[in-house]
Amino acid sequence: MSNEKGRILKISVLKYNPQVKEDKPKIVTYELEEAPGMTLFIALNEIRQHQDNSLKFDFVCRAGICGSCSMLINGKPGLACRALTSKMDADITLAPLPVFELIGDLSVFTGKWMSGMNDRLETWIHEKEEEEKACSCDTIEETMDPDLSDEIYELDRCIECGCCVAGCGTIVMRENFVGAVGLNKIARYAIDPRDKREDADYYDLIGDEDGIFGCMSLMGCEDVCPKDLPLQSKIAYMRRKMVAMKDK
Amino acid sequence: MKITYTDVLVVGGGLAGLRAATGVKERGHDCILLTLVPPKRSHSAAAQGGMQASLGNSIKGEGDNEDVHFEDTVKGSDWGCDQKVARIFTNTAPKAIRQLAQWGVPWTRVRRGDREVVINAKKVTITEKDEAHGLINARDFGGTKKWRTCYTSDGTGHSMLFAMDNKAHEDKIEVRERMEAMAIIHENGRCYGAVARNLMTGELVAYIAKSTIIATGGYGRIYKVSTNAVICQGMGQAIALETGVATLGNMEAIQFHPTAIVPVGILTTEGCRGDGGLLTDVDGYRFMPDYEPEKKELASRDVVSRRMVEHMRKGKGVKSRYGDHLWLDITILGREHIEKNLREVKEICESFLGIDPAVDPIPVRPTQHYSMGGIRTDYRGESQTMKGLFSCGEAACWDMHGFNRLGGNSVAETVVSGMLVAEYVSDYCESKDSDIDLHISVIESFLNKEKEKLNFLIKPKEKAEDAYELRAKMEDIMMDDVGIFRNGEDLQKAVTELEELLVRSKNIVVKCKTLTANPELFNAYRTQRMLKLALCVALGALQRTESRGAHSREDYPERNDKDFLNRTITTWKNENDTLPTISYEEINIDEMELPPGFRGYGKDMTITNPKSEKRQNEVDKIKEKLEDEGKDRFEIQEALMPFRDMLPDVYQGKNERLYEKFTKDVK
C-alpha cells in the first residue's frame, strides 16, 4: 500500500526578499513526490527542509483556524494549510497575498494591516461612559437572547486572514478601503446590544468611500472567504443602515 | 545598541499574555507585549470546546459551585496540584467569564424549555428553567461532576482571543509583532527584561522592564505529532531554564488528548464526547464502558487516552498506513447539532479528511496536547528563584493542573491567571523592590552574547550538523520513548540519545547565511533549546518512578504518595551541562483541603502516605464540628484551607448564581 508512487508535484513559488537590496522577484519551481493527505503545509515544509532552507512562509495552527497562511494558490486567495494537493493539478503556483506588506517570499505582514484596521474602526465593545469600570463580575451576567448570541458568533468567526482584502476589487483603486473584513466587524458590533454606539457613530467610521460606499459589489470577498462568512448580505445590511443615516 | 525601557514586558500574545497586559495597563503601568505572530493567531484560538466556570445556569449544572469545581480539578490533577492555587482559580473563573461577556464574547446562551441532548448514547430531553433563559450555557466535559464548560459553538478560544485582543486595542497596549525573546536579562537573581530579535529584520533589541511576564504557551512541538500550533515550541520555558537560576516544574507531565485526527494530529474537541459522541473500535464496538463503566467516554483525558492505547494493543485498532487508530462517532448527534455546535470539527473533517462527520466516523488517536509543566512560580506567578520574572498560562507551573489537566480548565486558566498575575505584578511594580539599578554594561553583555551565538550558528564548522535532522530525531524519540505509556528502559534510552543530540547541536551550521528574516536560522537556535526541554521531560519521567495522572510508568503502575507526592523541579545549572539538574519540592499533605484519595478510575493502586489518613481525619472532624455549628460552606472551607487573603482585593468577592445570592457587604 505504502509503496505506491505519488505524483510528482511541481510547485512554483514567487520568491523575493525585499530585505536584500540586489534581490529581484523570480519564480522558483520545486519538484516533490506527493504523499497521501498532503496539504500545502506539508509540501512547503518539506521543500524548506530538503530543498530550500531560505523559503519564507507563515503557518501557525495548520488547522484552518488562525488565518496565518493565506496566499495566492493558483491565483486565488486561500488558506494553504488546508489546501489538499490531491484536489489540485500537479502544477501549482503560489504567490504572496497582494495588498499587504511583503516580508519575503510567501510571508506577508497581514498583522500590521489588520491591527491598523482594528484601531481605525474601534473594533471593541463601547460601553456607556465609565459605567462598567468597577468589577461587577460577582453578580449574574446580563442575559442575551440565544439566537442573537448565535448571530453575533456567526460574524465573529472571521479569522482576519486577509483573503477578502486580497480578493477585493475596490482596494486596488482605494488603498484605504476597510475591506469586507472591516465592514463585517462593524456589522458585528452594530447588532451587539453590549456595544452602545449608534448608527451615527458607525457612520463616522465607515460612511464614506473608504468605507461602505466604496464597495463596488464585485463580491470577490465572499467568493474567497475561507470561513464562508455572509459578507454580501452584511455589507448590504450596513449599506442600507448607512444610506438611511446619510438621508437624515 | 538599542534599548527600550518599560514597566512591564509581556512575552507572548495569547490569552494569558493579553489579559496580563491589559490588567497592568489598567493599573497604570506601561507595558510592551512581544509576540511571534499577530496576537489573534496565537494558539489560544485553537481551544474549541470551552471554558470551565461554575456558573450553574444550565439545569445540568445546577448545584455547581467553586467547591465542586475545586474537587474535580484536584482529583483530575491526581493530587499533584497546589490546592490553594486550585482554590484561587475556581473562585476567579466565574468572574473571568462574566468579564469576558462584558467585553464581547458571544457565549452560547441557555434557551428556556425542552431541549434534546444525548447522554450515554441515548436521546434525553432536558428542560431549562425560565429564569436561566439568556444566561451563559455550559456543556459536559470529561472528569467533571457538573456540566460546567461554557462555550461559543466550538470556537470558544477564537472568540475569547478576539475579544481579548480587541480589548488590548482599546487599552492601547503596545504590541510588537514578529519579535522573539532570545534571552532573559538578569543579575543577582533579579530579572530585568529580555533580549529580543526582530524576525523580519534580525535586529536585536534589549527590553528593560521592572517585571517580565512569560506567557508563551506550551512545548508540545518537541513531539513529532501534536495538536499544538507550530509555534508551541516552549521557548519561554527554555529561556527561563537557560538563566540557570529560574526553575521549571513538572516538565514530564504531558497530556495526550484522546481525539486528534489521524494522521495530522489536528484536534477534535472533547465537546464531541461531552455532547454525546462515542469511541468505537475496528468492529464498530463501543469499548469505553467496558473499561470505565461509570464515566465511560467522559473519564479524565489521561484515563481515556490510556484506555484507547490499551484497546489498540489488544488488536482492536483500525489498521491504516499511518498506524492504528480508533473511531470517534458523532453521527448520533445529528446534522443540525454538528453544524451548529461542532462546526469547526465539521470543517476540519471536510478539509483534512474529506469526510462528513454527520455521516462518517472520524479516525482518531491520542496525541500530545498540553504541557502541565512550565516555569515554576508561586501563586502570584513569580518565579520562586528569580525576582521580577513572572509567568502565566500554559507557560507556567503555578500549579493548578498537577499531573493531568481537565478539559476546559486551560482557556479558563489563561484568563484567570492573566488577570491575577496582572494584579500581583502591578503590586510589585509599585513597590521599592522593583527599582532598577542595572549597569548598562550588563545589558550590553547580554546583547553581545546573543549576537555571538547567532554568528556562531552561521559559521562553517568541521563536523557540521543539520538542525532539521536533529530536530526530527528528537521528535521521534519523544514519540517513541516518552509517550503515553513509559518505562525505565525506553526512558533511559531517550535520555542517552537526546543528550547525544544536544551535544551534536552545538555544531549546527545554518546554510542560509542572512541574519535577517531567515527561517533556517530560527529553526536552528530553537532546536538547540527544544533539545534541552526534551531532556527535562525525559529525565524527569525517568526519575519519577510512579504513575500519576498523565505520567504513566508501566514498570511502576502505582501512584506513590509516600515518595512522589511532590513537584519535579528542573534547572540547567551550567551552560555547558548536557543534562538538567533535578530536585523535588514536597507537597504538604497537612495543609490540604482535600487529602489524597482514590480518583475512581480502574482499581486503586495507590501507595498511601500515612499523613493522608491523619489529615483526612482532621478534615472530617473540622467539617463535622462546623456543620453542627451551622456554619456555611465558605466558613467551613476557610477553616480547612484559607486562601481568600491570597487573592487581590478586587477579586475576593463571592460569586452569585441563580440559586446563591449574597448581600452586598460580604467579601
Short structural description:
The complex is a heterodimer of chains A (248) and B (667). With 248 residues, chain A is α+β, with helices and mostly antiparallel strands. Helix content of chain A is 34%, strand content 14%.
Write the layout of secondary structure elements.
The complex is a heterodimer of chains A (248) and B (667).
Chain A: E1 8-15, E2 26-33, H1 40-50, E3 70-73, E4 76-79, E5 91-95, E6 102-104, E7 107-108, H2 110-121, H3 146-156, H4 163-166, H5 170-173, H6 179-190, H7 199-206, H8 220-224, H9 231-247
Parallel strand pairs in A: 1-5
Antiparallel strand pairs in A: 1-2, 3-4, 3-5, 6-7
Helix pairs in contact in A: 3-6, 6-9, 7-9
Chain B: E1 3-11, H1 15-26, E2 31-35, E3 51-52, H2 66-76, H3 83-102, E4 113-119, E5 122-128, E6 149-150, H4 156-170, E7 174-177, E8 179-187, E9 190-198, E10 204-214, H5 235-241, E11 248-249, E12 254-261, H6 271-274, E13 278-280, H7 288-291, H8 301-316, E14 326-329, H9 335-341, H10 343-353, E15 362-371, E16 374-376, E17 389-391, E18 396-397, H11 409-429, H12 440-458, H13 467-481, E19 485-486, H14 488-505, H15 519-543, E20 552-553, E21 559-560, E22 566-571, E23 581-586, E24 606-607, H16 610-628, H17 633-640
Helix pairs in contact in B: 1-4, 1-11, 2-3, 3-11, 5-15, 13-14, 13-15, 14-15, 16-17
The total strand number of chain A stands at 7
Which range best describes the helical content of chain A: under 10%, 10-25%, 25-40%, 40-55%, 55-70% or over 70%?
25-40%
CATH superfamily of the largest domain in chain A: Alpha-helical ferredoxin
- Structural class estimated from helices and strands of chain A: alpha+beta
Counting helices, strands and paired strands, the structural category of chain B is alpha/beta
Q: How many DSSP-defined strands of chain B?
A: 24
Radius of gyration of chain A, in Å, reads 21 Å
Q: Classify the beta-strand content of chain A into a percent band.
A: 5-15%
Major β-sheet of chain B, in short? 7 strands, mixed
- State the CATH topology of the largest domain in chain A: Fumarate Reductase Iron-sulfur Protein, Chain B, domain 2
- Proportion of β residues of chain B? 15-25%
Shape of chain B: globular
Largest sheet descriptor of chain A: 5 strands, mixed
CATH class of the largest domain in chain A: Mainly Alpha
